[in-house]
Amino acid sequence: xxxxxxxxxxxxxxxxxxxxxxxxxxxxxxxxxxxxxxxxxxxxxxxxxxxxxxxxxxxxxxxxxxxxxxxxxxxxxxxxxxxxxxxxxxxxxxxxxxxxxxxxxxxxxxxxxxxxxxxxxxxxxxxxxxxxxxxxxxxxxxxxxxxxxxxxxxxxx
Length: 157
Description:
Elements (H helix, E strand, L loop, with lengths): L6 H14 L12 E6 L2 E7 L13 H17 L10 E10 L8 E11 L3 E10 L5 E11 L6 H4 L2
Antiparallel strand pairs: 1-2, 2-4, 3-6, 4-5, 5-6
């Protein structure tokens, strides 16, 4: 497999990965739409619905954490390094919740690979209000590659 692949192939692979996990915990992200995912960056959108809220009817912090974790992990899959398709695990996820969102708000989720070394990758992300551009959540995410693990392409077969 080549180290890089087209945007079309990236999106198709990302959709296959998400489909494979739709009955798992990541099912919370079923309504998130991946817009682009290439070159170590990922952009997604979601409209806040009741299922994304807490008892106060605002965006649930757990949904935000899951979205950042997953979207930044997908960004890493498209990063151009020798480990880019190797499964990895989170070793640190830090989120700062700056503003809230309510049902009906449209959100943009961004993620970027800052640096990816032989064993550790550093990512950053944000959730913004699409209409106002306000940053609702900012995040950093550190991942460790699994040694001797199967590639994602093997996992989605």
